[in-house]
């Protein structure tokens, strides 16, 4: 009987890896990095319970690092197959994987310099060469087209509206049984700018559904009112608004709102900086794939010259030192690395400034500490006092909330035999399981890390 093993994103939101074993073939769906708490990050170093060489193919739902960021490690450990994804996912992986490798190399260099690693010398989890090798294995495919990934198994990518190229992957047995598993990836949201609505559900035997916000409802869309208020108040204090943003995905929506508010006269015209080389390249990819996006994206296109692109590290340093009121969008989104850390290091002690979070802040990240009201955060070996105002806008999340997940599940033509909740912290998953059971009467399970289940397909 086919089986599924949950090798990541089980009772946590990162490290997505789901191994489907079917007719002697092994296919890994998503290959993400664990992030956040140290005990989770340690899992990135642990070997898989199976030899990577025995995995025949990998299929990616989307390019976010918690779904793709372990690929270079998989390759360095001996995986030799192809990696199937959409064209948009392949584009964005060309940005995120080399960047992730760079960060791993930096971490190892830093550990060697400080001598705090148990290993001498400290080695990176993977290198730029491993990332390049992983990229060379990507096989981009169009949406809504069935392709064979291993003998006996076909997959189809369906637009999930969560990120450029993001998909649900429908895996279908090529024999008469036609057994199906839908790997939900991350679910987008309804009636948002930039990205399309999530595609309706399809008939499937087994469903893997994300549950990041399974216990929450995003605040109602306020047409940019909170964003306008936060920026206006900060500018009145002559401060800077520092927005940590995931380099791919969030920046496009932020710019959309900023330009819209300016055009409607609800926000004074301000210097807007995008201080992230990766975000700038990501914007370019969004620009060439507008047919996969929301129709409103065309309006944003003509506005692209209205922000200042900060490309070089020297320009970034000058911006950190500049005291002029401005909006600064920089990555990473959970303030765990990247240029935003320098902006925070300089900006957090100043009560005129605001740090505005617009995405999910994982447990154990600097972003979560700030959102939770930390008085000090550690950066570059120092305790930095937090005097800046900390704000967050959950309405701008790219993940569906509990209500939107239920709305999506109601679009399925019939109940799957089993729905597994993944990609959520347990408290959110318990709440979502109760809601699905009550409102839809579906069979729902919350798998644990490493659990293997038989699939009746
Ligand atoms: Zn995602």
3D structure, described in words:
This protein has 457 residues and is an alpha/beta fold. The strands form 4 sheets. A 7-stranded mixed beta sheet has the order 6-5-4-3-2-1-22. A 7-stranded mixed beta sheet has the order 7-8-9-10-11-20-21, covered by helices on one side. A 6-stranded parallel beta sheet has the order 14-13-15-12-16-19, with helices on both faces. The relative contact order is 0.15. The protein is built from 14 helices and 22 strands. The structure holds zinc ion. Zinc ion (ZN) binds next to loops.
How many E-type strands?
A: 22
The percent range for strand residues is: 15-25%
Structural class label: alpha/beta
Bound molecules: zinc ion
Helix content range: 25-40%
End-to-end separation: 8 Å
Largest sheet: 7 strands, mixed
The total of helices stands at 14
Mean pLDDT across the residues is 93
The 3D shape can be described as: globular
Unreliable segments (pLDDT under 50, ≥5 consecutive)? none
Radius of gyration: 22 Å
- The side-by-side strand order for the widest beta sheet comes to 6-5-4-3-2-1-22
Helix-strand layout with pairing:
Elements: E1 3-8, E2 17-22, E3 25-29, H1 38-41, E4 57-59, H2 65-68, H3 71-76, E5 82-86, H4 87-114, H5 128-136, E6 138-141, E7 147-150, E8 153-159, E9 167-173, E10 180-183, E11 206-210, H6 225-236, E12 241-244, H7 250-263, E13 272-275, H8 277-288, H9 297-301, E14 308-309, H10 313-321, E15 327-330, H11 340-347, E16 354-357, H12 366-371, E17 376-379, E18 382-385, E19 389-392, H13 402-409, E20 418-422, H14 426-440, E21 444-445, E22 452-454
Parallel strand pairs: 3-4, 4-5, 5-6, 10-11, 11-20, 12-15, 12-16, 13-14, 13-15, 16-19, 20-21
Antiparallel strand pairs: 1-2, 1-22, 2-3, 7-8, 8-9, 9-10, 17-18
Helix pairs in contact: 4-5, 4-8, 10-11
